[in-house]
Amino acid sequence: MKCHYHPTADSVSKCHKCGKDLCKECSVDYYGKPICAECGMPLLGLLGDMHGMPRTSIEKNKQTQG
User: Fold this and answer.
1) pLDDT tens-digit profile of 28-42?
2) Of 1, 21, 41, 50, which sits 20 to 30 A from 9 (CA to CA)?
Protein backbone atom coordinates (compact mmCIF):
# COMPACT_ATOMS: atom_id res chain seq x y z
CA MET A 1 0.00 0.00 0.00
CA LYS A 2 1.02 3.60 -0.58
CA CYS A 3 0.64 6.63 1.67
CA HIS A 4 -2.58 8.60 1.20
CA TYR A 5 -0.63 11.89 1.25
CA HIS A 6 2.58 10.70 -0.53
CA PRO A 7 1.58 8.29 -3.31
CA THR A 8 5.20 7.29 -4.01
CA ALA A 9 5.95 6.36 -0.36
CA ASP A 10 5.11 2.97 1.13
CA SER A 11 2.66 3.05 4.00
CA VAL A 12 3.80 1.84 7.40
CA SER A 13 0.51 2.26 9.26
CA LYS A 14 -3.15 3.22 8.99
CA CYS A 15 -4.79 6.12 10.78
CA HIS A 16 -6.58 4.70 13.79
CA LYS A 17 -9.41 7.19 13.35
CA CYS A 18 -10.10 7.41 9.58
CA GLY A 19 -8.20 4.42 8.17
CA LYS A 20 -5.98 6.30 5.68
CA ASP A 21 -2.68 4.60 4.81
CA LEU A 22 0.28 6.59 6.17
CA CYS A 23 4.02 6.65 5.48
CA LYS A 24 6.57 7.09 8.28
CA GLU A 25 6.60 10.89 7.88
CA CYS A 26 2.81 11.24 8.02
CA SER A 27 2.05 8.99 10.97
CA VAL A 28 1.59 10.82 14.28
CA ASP A 29 1.54 8.82 17.51
CA TYR A 30 -1.57 9.37 19.63
CA TYR A 31 -1.39 7.34 22.84
CA GLY A 32 0.39 4.52 21.02
CA LYS A 33 -1.89 4.53 17.98
CA PRO A 34 -1.10 6.12 14.61
CA ILE A 35 -3.27 8.97 13.34
CA CYS A 36 -3.00 11.27 10.32
CA ALA A 37 -2.52 15.04 10.55
CA GLU A 38 -6.15 15.74 9.66
CA CYS A 39 -7.43 13.61 12.53
CA GLY A 40 -4.62 14.74 14.84
CA MET A 41 -5.18 18.47 14.52
CA PRO A 42 -8.26 18.62 16.73
CA LEU A 43 -6.85 16.03 19.13
CA LEU A 44 -3.30 17.32 19.54
CA GLY A 45 -3.42 20.92 18.39
CA LEU A 46 -0.93 20.18 15.62
CA LEU A 47 0.96 23.18 14.30
CA GLY A 48 2.75 23.80 11.02
CA ASP A 49 3.40 21.11 8.47
CA MET A 50 4.37 17.53 9.18
CA HIS A 51 7.91 17.84 7.92
CA GLY A 52 10.17 19.66 10.34
CA MET A 53 7.73 21.88 12.19
CA PRO A 54 6.76 21.15 15.80
CA ARG A 55 3.80 18.80 15.95
CA THR A 56 2.25 20.15 19.14
CA SER A 57 2.26 23.39 21.09
CA ILE A 58 4.38 21.63 23.75
CA GLU A 59 7.08 20.81 21.19
CA LYS A 60 6.94 24.38 19.87
CA ASN A 61 7.53 25.72 23.39
CA LYS A 62 10.48 23.34 23.90
CA GLN A 63 12.13 24.58 20.69
CA THR A 64 11.78 28.23 21.66
CA GLN A 65 13.01 27.69 25.23
CA GLY A 66 15.99 25.58 24.65
Assistant:
1) 888 888 988 888 877
2) 41
